[in-house]
Amino acid sequence: MDGLIQLWASTGLSNFQADQAVMMAVGFGLLYLAIKKEFEPLLLLPIGFGAVLSNIPMAGIAEEGGLLSYLYLGIKSGIFPLLIFMGVGAMTDFGPMLANPKTLLLGAAAQFGIFGTLFGALALNLIPGMNFTFKDAAAIAIIGGADGPTSIYVASKLAPELLGAIAVAAYSYMALVPLIQPPIMRALTTEEERLIEMAQLRHVSRLEKIIFPGILLILTAMLLPSAAPLIGMFCLGNLIRECGVVDRLSKTAQNEMINVVTIFLGLAVGSKLSADQFLRTETLGILVLGALAFSFGTASGVLMAKLMNVISPENKVNPLIGAAGVSAVPMSARVANKVGQESNPHNFLLMHAMGPNVAGVIGSAVAAGVLLALVQ
Amino acid sequence: MDGLIQLWASTGLSNFQADQAVMMAVGFGLLYLAIKKEFEPLLLLPIGFGAVLSNIPMAGIAEEGGLLSYLYLGIKSGIFPLLIFMGVGAMTDFGPMLANPKTLLLGAAAQFGIFGTLFGALALNLIPGMNFTFKDAAAIAIIGGADGPTSIYVASKLAPELLGAIAVAAYSYMALVPLIQPPIMRALTTEEERLIEMAQLRHVSRLEKIIFPGILLILTAMLLPSAAPLIGMFCLGNLIRECGVVDRLSKTAQNEMINVVTIFLGLAVGSKLSADQFLRTETLGILVLGALAFSFGTASGVLMAKLMNVISPENKVNPLIGAAGVSAVPMSARVANKVGQESNPHNFLLMHAMGPNVAGVIGSAVAAGVLLALVQ
Amino acid sequence: MDGLIQLWASTGLSNFQADQAVMMAVGFGLLYLAIKKEFEPLLLLPIGFGAVLSNIPMAGIAEEGGLLSYLYLGIKSGIFPLLIFMGVGAMTDFGPMLANPKTLLLGAAAQFGIFGTLFGALALNLIPGMNFTFKDAAAIAIIGGADGPTSIYVASKLAPELLGAIAVAAYSYMALVPLIQPPIMRALTTEEERLIEMAQLRHVSRLEKIIFPGILLILTAMLLPSAAPLIGMFCLGNLIRECGVVDRLSKTAQNEMINVVTIFLGLAVGSKLSADQFLRTETLGILVLGALAFSFGTASGVLMAKLMNVISPENKVNPLIGAAGVSAVPMSARVANKVGQESNPHNFLLMHAMGPNVAGVIGSAVAAGVLLALVQ
Amino acid sequence: MEPSLSELLLPGLKLMIIGMAIVYLFLALLVWIIGVTARLVGTMSPAPIQHTKRSSLEVEKEEAELVAVIAAAVECQSRSLN
Amino acid sequence: MEPSLSELLLPGLKLMIIGMAIVYLFLALLVWIIGVTARLVGTMSPAPIQHTKRSSLEVEKEEAELVAVIAAAVECQSRSLN
Amino acid sequence: MEPSLSELLLPGLKLMIIGMAIVYLFLALLVWIIGVTARLVGTMSPAPIQHTKRSSLEVEKEEAELVAVIAAAVECQSRSLN
Ligand code: NA
Ligand code: NA
Ligand code: NA
């Protein structure tokens, strides 16, 4: 009988706590969103699964010595998000942005999503139960960058205990871009604006594409070294892609390497979805702020495009592509294209929207550098 | 001359000890079995090579600071066997088992190979020179699970000093399944039984396949958390495979990731094949017990199938597929098919045998959980 | 204003030191050589990029806790160079060498490039400003082996502070083989010698190819255990390639695994290109010695071939293939072929030169073992 | 003092009985749940009336072949890493 | 003593202004440098005089094919990893 | 006290001589063993009487193709890693 009692004492049933059950349900909810709704499944599936695994009572998978505790070292050290960023760099074509560099300003404007949210998070302290430090606020704000690895990198430095909620919010809202953005885009533009057709993009030479990551890196090194790890690895990936002499490295960085790291990163993020860190009033605040951040960013991008049309009316920009400045590559570029085609089915904005889209990635990495430099 | 003397003193020849030479011969023996006899070459080749490398005198490849000592950390932490298990999950099709779930009971029965062997290992203490603790016995017994990563995972937790012998025995007997099983299967069945044809398997929907890993994980979390790391990673791999939205992760988990980890795992297991741990009377006991474990498991599976036919005679099971319950995927399912075709060449048992086959993997992971929970 | 001042104080501009700027320029120089001149781009691109990243002021990417400091652990432990060596083994076909084993002696002769340079490095201490210890000299000498991973492995053990300069010199000179070798080869051979046609290579059976890595490993274990990690991993890769039963491991070792490790290794080597370790008189000495080492090695190989023709005139060797003994696979074999075809366009020396070429890899690993055993 | 043999064997017997019982119970429970799930799934999603001309299986198989051929072709190239 | 709200909000406002300013400056600088680079590159390597003979129809057809291929590739892989 | 130059150069010379001797001996031994092995292998497995009509190059090329196809096929299926 001793054995049976010992065994019963070791079962999950006898040790389940309500909040662990809730967190496992959250994990399964994320799996549902990932699989059924196809919400960023590459990340949300491992994150959801990691949440389930780490909340199994007695198993200790996320505790010291458990598998997920080892994987988390890859986030704590920054290695995983930086390798993902390198892989994303190897997948990114800067061509459309280089062809029309002023779209970079749209990517800049959309970062208001970050800084506006930072202010909002601090203001939320007015509400009882919400208690965000300056660091917390900065980590939450980065959700507005609409960039997964950047969010995880910044959160792991500034507010590791919020990492789970922030990553979940970032990827969820990225998946919700087709729902969040269109109403804002329609509200802020007139029909004529949405009908603007843009001039065909000029040809960008291979040399320009090879030089660009170097330029970006030098500028970062000189002006904002705190963004250098993120932007540096991004540039490395992009250089590997464009230089044409190390295709085998490029292929591996875009495929097997990023796939393996994605699984590990997702599981490790999921291991931070523990009850005591996630089932708090603050998480609600994070979810609300995340939605606001995306809305702010979208609006800023669109308004910036309209401003640019006022300043230089001879070479107009369709303001819909301003919304793509939040990054969320390539989802928000597709949304811009789709909303544009509602007005004119023959207006192909996709390539034009890819410019602000990848500019948004640079913009949020720059913003991340500002936060890492000024918030400690 | 000093240099020459110093050099001679640093050669292997002047430092070779007999037992190191023997262990290198064991290593080359494993390489021979792997390459010439195709005994589970994916694992036995790296294991054999690791054994050779770690027994080179003066080189210290398996000692503190040597390559294999670093690779061994991947086993000690459980990371390597769990990643392999994830990859195996991504390679496993539960369809045949879901189509005929009662074959799970065959996979359960075959685990008698584990627990019977545990008892046998304890009884071996009667023989002078054999000296197995309770933990040792449990680690040895898991060989009967016929599942490589499970054996390595359990042995690394319960009896790391026996890891080398246990892993070698597990993989060797898995390779010997076509020799060990058929006589037992023939002895325990009648010709009529071997001629039983089974109804065609029903179609299993994609949804059932997606839901199954979740169900298995919940059940494990509630009843046997000690099995949660193993079963959890297995379920993750299977979910990645079946969900259909993360095929790039599935491909990597089944190929590059598992290949890299297999090389590292094999080398690290080989590093535990040192003379002082392997050249002992106990190793003989382990080899004998391993053979018994496979035989017990095979017999239990077959007898369980016969029992099921007695209980529900309207829907008969060919008892040969009971032998596939030991796991050893897909070798033992193939053996069941082949022995069945000796009686009737047109009786295709392969798919029917895949049910108990993959059930055996679950069964031995459950048994591993029981051992980890109750043996400390 | 505080924020602005704080930000300015955190910029690279306000913290740039002249030597960091110089080192970043060195890094961009390596990128230029890698991309534009295709100097061993697989390694020099990551090395150059690592040099740029690690010299960004304030970013601390190569400092304790930075990404490159973690990656450097893979070099310090020897894991990365050994894994690369395994991958190279999996890419190497020993067939041409086994068909004409006496070409091994050409690979032996070319190692004079190593030991002659060792003596030269010690002699350089005569020049004021140069200050090489015995260990430094040995680490520099290994450049003459014309083998990247071997150089990195030895340098990381004997003179980690010279690692950056040594790796850069090794890969640069390997890329310069088509410029360095031909004049030496022409100077040391007569037109008749260059016209020598060699007998067609005999067929080498699969069994011989499978057995060879085992033989090489046993010999190393008995005579030179200090070379066992390098040669052992090389043999493992080659056995995986030739045995024919683990092709999935071979494929991964030759592709994804070596690609990932190459990126990491290159970045980590680049992190050792810091101003205080690279901008010294000694670096000039290393560059001069590296060029000498390659020249010595080339000359020794050619002269050895001529000596062999004197000793056994009935079965002549074209002395041009002696130059391939330095390794630098497959560049120097191609050079031998090309110089040969200048004299007779129908004389195909490529396969004949592959023999000394891969023998040179073994030779330099043996020489590395000698250095590691005798220099401490 | 080493444990006597009966001190070792008795727990072994107990573990054997408990262990087999748990394995059976666990997998039997799984059999039951799989059955329930299959019925629930069957209830919720009536059998799809598709597979009109070519089964999706056929298409998948063709695609797999194509991928295999392309993979082989890609694989065959460029291995110049030293 | 926790910081009062205004003590938190004021730095937040400052950070917002400084941050947006830096992001704009950084990217605007990048716009300028990209322009300069494009001109330098264009100067150094004169525009290749190609596309002379082929009809716009041919080009369109090729582009259509390309689009089809890219669409297929994108659908097959769906690299929405971010 | 730094070591004097001759204190450094002499060991260097010694190492050079010992090192080259070992490299030569090692590889010469390997030459001999390879020769012995080739003869033993040749003795044990008498030379196959093949290569009658088609050149070995053709066969090798075909084999390489076959290997690629089979590898792709095998890769796609049956993954018996356990
Ligand atoms: Na962004
Ligand atoms: Na089993
Ligand atoms: Na060499």
Task: Give a short synopsis of this structure.
By secondary structure, chain A is mainly α. Chain A has helices at 2-10, 18-35, 41-54, 67-76, 79-91, 95-99, 103-109, 112-123, 134-141, 148-158, 163-188, 191-195, 206-223, 228-243, 247-254, 256-270, 275-278, 281-311, 331-343, 350-374.
Could you describe the 3D structure shown?
The complex is a heterohexamer, with 3 copies of chain A (376 residues) and 3 copies of chain D (82 residues). By secondary structure, chain A is mostly helical. Helix content of chain A is 71%, strand content 0%. Chain D has a domain at 1-44. The longest helix of chain D has 40 residues, at 5-44. Chain D is rod-shaped, with a radius of gyration of 27 Å. Chains in contact: A-B, A-C, A-D, A-E, B-C, B-D, B-F, C-D, C-E, C-F, D-F.
Question: Which short descriptors sum up this protein?
Answer:
heterohexamer, A: 376 residues, mainly alpha, 20 helices, globular, D: 82 residues, 2 helices, binds sodium ion
